[in-house]
Amino acid sequence: MASISAEQTNNEIVKKNRIQVSNTKKPLFFYVNLAKRYLQQHAEIELSALGMAITTVVTIAEILKNNGFVNEKSILTSTVGTKDAAKGRIVHKARIEIVLEKSEKFDSLMATAAHQANGNGKVEKVEKVEKMEKKQ
């Protein structure tokens, strides 16, 4: 019987609350809203991106911080070697990981936002959001 180390368990937890951002696949506020949904389920989230998507991750983190939803916990930068099929060689890309933790005001801010939106139909139904998360 194989035993699971604490490090493996921690890595699995991180994957459940990690959002890998692309600057071409989804609009900016898709990721902002997704981060808020993840924060409703987890105490912290990790935003990560490669190359040109790094600016998108930084923007998402700043929006969440400036609106009081999160506190910045850590930022890690590195380079990753990826194989470029067209060039047939390894290309190094910049990588960023930003860990954000739920602020003390998070729950009250989310409740206020939901209350304000209830009258004008701008808040999506929970089922629709859950379907979007399952697709990923």
Textual characterization of the structure:
By secondary structure, the protein is an alpha+beta fold. Helices cover 45% and strands 29% of the residues. It is built from five helices and four strands, in the order H-E-H-E-H-E-E-H-H. The protein has a four-stranded mixed beta sheet with strand order 1-2-4-3. Helix 2 (28-41) packs across helix 3. Mean pLDDT is 81; it is low at 1-9 and 123-130.
Order of neighbouring strands in the sheet with most strands:
1-2-4-3
Q: Write the H/E string, N to C.
A: HEHEHEEHH
Helix content: 40-55%
What percentage of amino acids are in beta strands? 25-35%
Average pLDDT number:
81
Oligomer: single chain
Termini Cα gap = 32 Å
Radius of gyration: 17 Å
Query: Using DSSP, what is the number of strands?
Result: 4
Question: How many individual helices?
Answer: 5
Q: Structural class, please? A: alpha+beta
Low-pLDDT regions: 1-9, 123-130
What best-fitting shape do the alpha-carbon axes yield? elongated
The largest pleated sheet is described as: 4 strands, mixed
